[in-house]
Amino acid sequence: MNNLQACNLYKALTDETRVKILQTLHSGECCACELLKNLSITQSTLSHHMKCLTELGLVKGRKDGRWMRYSLNIPCTEQLYSFTKTLLVGQG
Predict the structure, then answer these.
(1) Which of 61, 6, 3 is nearest to 30 (CA)?
(2) Where in this chain does the record put each HTH arsR-type domain (predicted)?
(3) Quick one: which of 74, 63, 81, 67 has its CA closest to 25?
């Protein structure tokens, strides 16, 4: 992960709703309707946040009938964790 990718991911995490979405997905895959139940936002607002999170690679989406189901993209979250860890504790 390069610095620009990390900066874009950190920017996405400055939104409280996106952090709540990621926390919810930490428990496992959820459909959009389940996410809406846990958040006080509209469908269009959820779509905006999910587009941001999926385009950055933090979240994966898959179509399941008429619903979208979302899950964390574990390799991306692990890369962000490793990048952050090097900032906090150094590389050596």
Answers:
(1) 61
(2) 1-92
(3) 74
Q: Which residue has the tokens 């900032």?
A: 87
pLDDT tens digits for 46-63? 999 999 999 999 999 999
The strands making up 30-31's β-sheet, listed across from edge to edge, are 30-31, 67-72, 59-64
Q: Confirm if 68 and 61 have CB atoms less than 8 A apart.
A: yes
Domain boundaries, the chain: 3-83
CATH architecture of the domain with residue range 3-83: Orthogonal Bundle (1.10)
Confidence band, pLDDT 50/70/90 cuts, at residue 91: low
- 79 neighbors 3 (Cβ within 8 angstroms): no
